[in-house]
Amino acid sequence: MPRGLELNHPVRVPEKPALEGLELKWMHSWEETGVYRFDRTRPRADVFAIDTPPPTVSGSLHVGHVFSYTHTDVVARFQRMRGKAVFYPMGWDDNGLPTERRVQNYFGVRCDPSLPYDPSFVPPEKPDKHPISVSRPNFIELCTRLTLEDEKVFEHLWRTLGLSVDWSLTYATIDRRAQSSMKFGRETERGGFGGCAGGVNDATYGSDGSQRTP
Prior knowledge:
Low-confidence stretches: 193-206
Largest sheet: 2 strands, parallel
Order of helices and strands: HEHEEHEEHEHH
Distance between the termini: 42 Å
Helix content: 40-55%
Strand order of the largest sheet: 1-2
CATH topology: Rossmann fold
Strand content: 5-15%
CATH superfamily: HUPs
CATH class: Alpha Beta
Mean pLDDT: 80
Shape: elongated
Number of helices: 6
């Protein structure tokens, strides 16, 4: 239990317990009290960091996600009970082939890097059997738009499950913070800070180009 959070009042159990509204009640309570917030002031020896590969934002979660992240959450809660400051963020892997396929099927489009950007492009309400060719910038815009919607669905499910994640540390593999960290790590391993090889998927694997590095 985090420091400063004490039960200084009696706990009353209702005569007829009901489940309605409990999830929403405790979700708000955990967020307001910051019960799962990582304490950056604690010394390194007191920190227990959990680095989980972020789930791929491909449109839907399945029971395997629930099982695997439940295991991780048990470890996080155990370490908190031991008095550790648990660093437990949640991230979204929204960069790569699963995202491309998701966007292609959802909007009925296909990326054609040879086409110019169309600022007035609007995807069809219902995807046709024959995908529409769009420019790479248009395709990237659709990727960003759909992954943001999918991430909200993912977060809602994780919150409903009651995962003890610090949601203030949420990141995505395409956000500027993650890109800067990956670029720094990659260039450090190379021994310098030369140019980055963006768009590797395009040339090597023939993908549609949602490798959204700047």
